[in-house]
């Protein structure tokens, strides 16, 4: 029996490094205990639950859009992790909150790469429909 689904939206996490040659942007996907641009605050458990559910159900190249327009773009997560300690360094940026979901996305389309390079896109915005499993930490 499938579990019910719920939508999680976290907006405004910064890209802190961009490798122009490879087209890989590094940054934060979700940070616990810190308000996003819509003033939403997520617990460590929420962030871990969303990160794990997203990665378990990931279809590379099918889950990336531009500005939540729902049009698929050619991109892939090439690295991600939940920070294991406060003040953990991730590719040159220190994330002060344990349990921050950080990662790297490779963008294959030249126009998206250019928008990251010129600062038009300066961060990640996460909109995920996750499984809502009864009894799971939320």
Question: Can you describe this structure in just a few lines?
Answer:
The chain is of the alpha+beta class. The protein has one domain (22-126). It has helices at residues 44-56, 110-117, and strands at 5-19, 24-30, 75-82, 88-90, 93-95, 101-107, 123-131.
What strand order characterises the main sheet?
A: 3-6-2-1-7
Mean pLDDT: 81
**Structure annotation, total helices:** 2
Largest sheet: 5 strands, antiparallel
Structural class label: alpha+beta
Count of the separate structural domains: 1
Question: What characteristic shape results from the CA principal axes?
Answer: globular
Helix content: 10-25%
Residue windows where pLDDT falls under 50 for at least 5 positions: 133-138
User: What would you report as the Rg, rounded to the nearest angstrom?
Assistant: 15 Å
Instruction: Kindly estimate the percentage of residues that lie in beta strands according to DSSP.
Output: 35-45%
How would you characterize the overall build of this protein?
The structure is a single chain. The chain has 138 residues and is an alpha+beta fold. It has one domain. 15% of the residues lie in helices and 38% in strands. The chain is built from 2 helices and 7 strands; from the N terminus they run ββαββββαβ. Strands 3-6-2-1-7 form a 5-stranded antiparallel β-sheet. A two-stranded antiparallel ribbon has the order 4-5. The radius of gyration is 15 Å and the shape is globular. It starts with a strand and ends in a 7-residue tail after the last strand. 23% of the residues are buried. Mean pLDDT is 81; it is low at 133-138.
